[in-house]
Amino acid sequence: xxxxxxxxxxxxxxxxxxxxxxxxxxxxxxxxxxxxxxxxxxxxxxxxxxxxxxxxxxxxxxxxxxxxxxxxxxxxxxxxxxxxxxxxxxxxxxxxxxxxxxxxxxxxxxxxxxxxxxxxxxxxxxxxxxxxxxxxxxxxxxxxxxxxxxxxxxxxxxxxxxxxxxxxxxxxxxxxxxxxxxxxxxxxxxxxxxxxxxxxxxxxxxxxxxxxxxx
Length: 215
Prior knowledge:
By secondary structure, the protein is an alpha+beta fold. It is 26% helix and 25% strand. The protein has a 5-stranded antiparallel sheet with strand order 1-2-9-4-7. Strands 6-5-8-3-10 form a 5-stranded antiparallel sheet. A hairpin with a 5-residue loop joins strand 5 and strand 6. Helix 1 packs across helix 2 and helix 3 runs antiparallel to helix 4. The radius of gyration is 16 Å and the shape is globular.
């Protein structure tokens, strides 16, 4: 499983080296993780969205040899040994959540319950199926995203929707409201939390929500 850890380190090293809004969080991860630490062996757990869409997402990544391409290849090679998690069904309390939650899965690679232990960060992959909206939500955790495969549209706070594709990055400050919409392709990302690691994802219901297809 070392290639998965190396892929994460590669993503963060590239971000720290080339600057931009994710350089501080990437540098924090590089400086505060014991990258040579002993790996855990969590029991693998699959998810239907992974069976259905991971291969397509990994086939639509950045340039060969790029950090995003290496991250997708490392995940693809280890997929049968990964513990994928999903929102529990008791949270499927509204039609938009019931449509979203079966089509989304995430895994922790670094952090509590992940392959490489850390009490300073939490980082892993997320996979969102095609034609799926991740409804507006927020959390105390400061969050960084690297788009690895596929494409979609993203919204942060009151800013307009913007398109994302492999190699793009997105930053969410603590408590930022954000939403993601996929189109014909699934969306594979690397995510990183660098604060409030135990914070809960809260779905935001106040104010109108306008999906990108209508703007």
